[in-house]
Design brief:
The chain is mainly α. It has one domain. Helices cover 71% and strands 2% of the residues. The protein is built from five helices and two strands, in the order ααβααβα. It has helices spanning 3-22, 28-51, 73-89, 98-121, 132-162; strands spanning 55-56, 126-127. The protein has a two-stranded antiparallel sheet. α2 (28-51) runs antiparallel to α5 and α4 (98-121) crosses α5 (132-162). It is globular and about 45 Å long. It is a multi-pass membrane protein.
Length: 163
């Protein structure tokens, strides 16, 4: 196994540890909703970016999976949804305006920084026509849509439990 696959494995293990440590037991159902809904967003977006040739993920944890889906399972379908779970569960609902914007920039910036470091130092990500600021913007938009859905779902869940 090469260095890139060890990095992917390390990121997956770190993500699992974050879930175990940061998701309260009573919020597991909400975490699943956030996790799965973000995948609804990342699936078509990731496929478009890869199929258009803007970005490439040459090394996968499972190389044969690259024959069917050239997006990054590890990043788009696991790491990013884990980041979205932490984002939504700990979102400062009492902050408005600039404080809320800083929260978005922090999380999107973390994910973007990680991708840029991996792009420049490994063969896990290759930008072709893609730029780091597209990652920043698309991550912020995805987190926004996902968090709006989570809040809508949470309100519906509370109404069902009250009945």
């Amino acid at each position: 196994m090469n260095l890139e696959r060890w990095i992917i494995l390390g990121i997956l293990l770190l993500s699992i540890m974050c879930l175990k440590l940061l998701v309260p037991r009573e919020k597991v159902r909400e975490a699943w909703v956030i996790f799965l809904f973000l995948q609804v967003i990342t699936w078509p977006a990731g496929l478009i970016a890869v199929e258009m040739g803007w970005i490439e993920y040459p090394i996968q944890l499972y190389p044969k999976a690259n024959l069917y889906n050239r997006t990054s399972f590890s990043f788009e379908f696991f790491l990013f949804p884990v980041v979205a779970i932490i984002f939504s569960l700990y979102f400062p609902r009492n902050k408005k305006g600039f404080g809320s914007l800083l929260y978005y920039v922090f999380f999107a910036g973390f994910f973007t920084f990680l991708e840029v470091v991996l792009e420049s130092n490994t063969k896990l990500v290759e930008y072709h026509e893609w730029k780091w600021y597209w990652t920043l913007v698309t991550v912020m938009i995805s987190l926004y849509i996902n968090d709006k859905f989570y809040r809508w779902f949470s309100k519906r869940l509370i109404l069902v439990e009250l009945k």
